[in-house]
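Cont'd.
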Amino acid sequence: MTAKYHWLILCVVIVASGCSSLGVKPWERNVLAQDDMLMDADAIDLALDEHIYFSKEASSGGQGFAGGGCGCN
Amino acid sequence: MKKSLLLLLLVISPLKAEIYDINRLDLKSHQGKVVYLDFWASWCKPCKESFPWMNSLLAKYPADSFTIITINLDAETDAMHRFLGKVKADFDIYHDASGQIAEQFEIEGMPTSYLFDRSGKVVKKHIGFYTKHTGKYEREIEELL
C-alpha cells in the first residue's frame, strides 16, 4: 500500500514539474514577434470576424494583443 | 576598379559598429564613465527605433565620460548582420547568441537597457523603448554626467 502511495506521489511530482519551465525567454521570441504571428495579421479578416461576433453574439474586441510579441509593451 | 568599388561600399555602408563576441565583454573596463547598456535583437521593432536615438547620444555627450555598449541577442549571426547592413550603429556590439548574459541580467522584455553610474553601479533599468520618454532617459544620463 505504501509503495502504491510512493508511486502516486512520484507520478504527481513528475506531472507537476513538467510545467515548471514553460514559455520562451524574451530574447527567444524571434518567430513569435513576426507580423504573421499576430492574431490580427490580416486586417480584413479581422474586421469580418469582428462584425460576425458583434452582430450574432453582441460581443466585440479581444482579438488582438499590444505589441508584436517582444514582451516590451 | 575593384578596389575603388570596395572603398565606395565601405564609405556608403551604414555599419560603423565593431562586433565582438560576448566573452570579450568587460564592463569593469568602462568604470569612470556613465554606461548605457542596451540589449536588442534584429526582430524587435522598438529596438530598431532606439538606434537613431542611441547614435544621437554618442554625438551629444563627451566620449570620455559616456559610452554605449549594446548586446545583440539574435540566435542567428546572419540576422544581426542583415540588420546592421540597414540600420546605422555608431556603438560597439557584443553578440550573445546563447543568451547567457541576458539570463544573468534577467531580461524581461526587448529591448532592455541599464544605466550604470561612473562607479559601475546600476542606477536605472528600462524595459522597452518609447520615443516619448527619450527626454526622461536623457535627463537620467545627464544627472550622472
